[in-house]
Specification:
This protein has 440 residues and is of the alpha/beta class. The chain contains 14 helices and 16 strands. Strand 9 and strand 10 form a beta hairpin. It binds L-homoserine. The site of L-homoserine has 11 residues, from helix 7.
């Protein structure tokens, strides 16, 4: 039986899961493929740790370069994470004629557009399904199942850690740091949790999805990114009372007409209607909602992080490559869903031009005329209010006010906010969150 030989870089959470599947599901995999996948070697700096796996017959090494140079390896799985040395290792693997599978969203977001042509030039494949949405085959759906559609929007809950934190804050009244510690203990969080809570991980993933949806180059550096660290329990309950739930969303939309092409890409805490599908996605679950011009709304839901779900996606990529091995890869769609020669440099829409609805939270002195002053600034900027609620007075004699607005562009809203912040009666900074009523 034809055999594809795998070398694994990194035996951390995901690497351990991949080794476990390749060993425990060996028979299922070969029955599905009519070919075999064999774990030949694995490299990690910490080989002494007990991973609860029988590695008999697997060469364990502490130096990744042994795997990159080995003659008996057809496919390298990169599960080290981060930009370097992952980029160098993947590049070397491709130069040495080995297919690559990775779960590394940072690597693909930053260097994917250098690596795809290198793989194609060498007749090799790069699989990265696990990089976005963990175990959810959302990129396979976008690239293959929705290939007949012009994509109209992508909304994603793409970070399990943030979704877990927001859910715990809402359901159990945990404070932010307590919920983050729990997420870390469960193995969801990045090595540096700032990447999770400040939205960077979501931006990595969104930039990949947007490029795949719209046939553009990957522009991670141009994604407008805000995290969840300024959200308080009071914001969660105030928005709930108004019929919304706060989710950290990645949002991408095309703005294509005869004269202009731009892609809108943003990551920020977002108010979504309590009745929407995406509002029901709780705990560490992820969901990606993709709308196409023929298919209309679709949604993909599942575990976005953790050993077993993420390893499931990694091994599915290995199996895809195995099914075309060793003769060819013609049955696979191009990695980014468009042939490389047709992928374009499409400019990112400046955030100032993006049109949103808003939630504003401000702390003001409890005295006559304050609300009139605030709303008159909004009126000057032609920003129309949907709702305004004054909450209970604090001991300091200040009162929180929360407002929902109708649509305006970000530049206009920021100009209004800087005038509101300058009012003598307004204490502290104004918190601005954005609202998406259109999400399904
Ligand atoms: N830190 C990521 C998350 C892991 O919390 O979703 C999966 O990319």
């Amino acid at each position: 039986m034809t055999e594809l030989r795998v070398g694994l870089l990194g035996l951390g959470t995901i690497g351990t899961g991949v080794a476990r599947i390749l060993i425990e599901q060996k028979e299922l995999i070969s029955r599905r493929l009519g070919k075999q996948v064999r774990l030949v070697a694995a490299a990690d700096k910490f080989l002494d740790r007990d991973r609860g796996i029988d590695f008999t017959g697997v060469r364990l090494c502490s130096d990744a370069t042994e795997i990159l140079a080995a003659d008996d390896i057809d496919l390298v799985v990169e599960l080290i994470g981060g930009y370097e040395p992952a980029r160098t290792f993947v590049q070397t693997a491709l130069e040495n004629g080995k297919h690559v599978v990775t779960a590394n969203k940072a690597l693909i977001a930053k260097h994917g557009d250098e690596l795809f042509p290198l793989a194609a030039a060498n007749g090799l494949q790069i699989g990265f399904e696990a990089a976005v949405g963990g175990g959810i085959p959302c990129m396979k759906a976008l690239r293959e199942g929705l290939a007949a559609n012009a994509i109209e929007s992508v909304y994603g809950i793409l970070n399990g850690t943030c979704n877990f934190i927001l859910t715990k804050m809402e359901h159990e009244g945990l404070d932010y740091s307590e919920a983050l510690s729990q997420a870390q203990a469960l193995g969801y969080a990045e090595a540096n949790p700032t990447f999770d809570v400040e939205g960077i991980d979501t931006a990595h993933k969104l930039s990949i999805l947007a490029a795949m949806a719209f046939g553009s180059k990957i522009k991670f550096d141009e994604v407008y990114t805000e995290g969840i660290s300024k959200i308080t329990a009071a914001d969660i309950s105030a928005t709930h009372e108004m019929g919304y739930r706060i989710k950290l969303l990645g949002i991408a939309k095309p703005h294509f007409d005869d004269k202009n092409e731009q892609v809108e890409m943003r990551v920020h805490p977002t108010l979504v209607p309590l009745t929407s599908q995406i509002a029901q996605v709780s705990d560490s679950y992820n969901a990606v909602q993709i709308s196409g011009d023929f298919v209309e709304h679709t949604m993909y839901f599942g575990r976005g992080a953790g050993e077993r779900p993420t390893a499931s996606a990694v091994v599915a990529d290995i199996m895809d490559i195995t099914s075309g091995f060793p003769d060819g890869i013609a049955h696979l769609a191009p990695p980014m869903g468009f042939v490389e020669s047709s992928r374009r440099e499409i400019p990112t829409m400046p955030m100032a031009d993006v049109v949103c609805e808003y939630y504003l939270r401000l702390m003001v002195k409890d005295q006559p005329g304050v609300i009139a002053a605030v709303t008159s600034i909004l009126a000057d900027h032609r920003i129309s209010l949907e709702a305004l609620v004054q909450k209970e007075r604090h001991a300091s004699n200040n009162v929180p006010i929360v407002m929902l607005t109708h649509e305006t562009n970000e530049g206009n809203m920021q100009a209004a906010i800087s005038r509101i912040t300058g009012l003598a009666a307004v204490e502290d900074d104004v918190l601005i969150l954005r609202k998406e009523s259109a999400v399904a």
